[in-house]
Amino acid sequence: MMKIAIPLAEGRLCMHFGHCEQFALVTADETSKTIAGTKLLTPPPHEPGVLPRWLHEQGANVIIAGGMGQRAQSLFAANSIQVVVGAPTGTPEKIVGDFLAGTLEVGGNACDH
After folding, report:
1. Which of 65, 71, 77 has its CA nearest to residue 108?
2. Does pLDDT of 112 surpass 60?
3. How far apart are CA 2 and CA 46, in angstroms?
4. pLDDT tier at 12, thresholds 50, 70, 90
5. Which of 59, 1, 61, 6 minimizes the C-alpha distance to 28?
6. Domains (ranges, CATH) in the chain?
7. Nearest-angstrom CA–CA distance, 29 and 106
């Protein structure tokens, strides 16, 4: 089982993870490519290095975001969390379903810092 973190604003992917209201933590089975469950979590205040460590503590091993700065990507990698950036806005279930199916279309990183 893998746990995929999706930053949310109003129930949809937030284009910058540091400005999100909540994270969806989606538990998925890589083998059957199915979603086992979704938890909505309120993150701690956004400060450098806090979210990668906090999401690691929640069991996340993938984060899918619209945009993320290079330093944040490095911090997630240091916490053994795979980073996928450039994802389109959408519901967590749609994004994770597409990711599991190998059909998630990612564009450019929506963050330039």
Report:
1. 65
2. no
3. 24
4. very high
5. 1
6. 2-101 (3.30.420.130)
7. 21
What Cα–Cα distance (Å) separates residue 43 from each residue in 8, 20, 30, 106?
11, 8, 25, 24
> How far apart are alpha carbons 96 and 58 in whole angstroms?
17
User: In this predicted model, what pLDDT tens digit does every residue of 28-85 receive, in sequence order?
Assistant: 999 999 999 999 999 998 788 899 999 999 999 999 999 888 999 999 999 999 999 9
Of 6, 13, 10, the residue nearest 89 (C-alpha): 13
Query: What whole-number distance in Å separates Cα of residue 1 and Cα of residue 8?
Result: 22
Stated as kind and residue range, the H or E segment containing 65 is strand 62-65
Measured between alpha carbons, how far is 28 from 103 in angstroms, rounded to an integer? 16
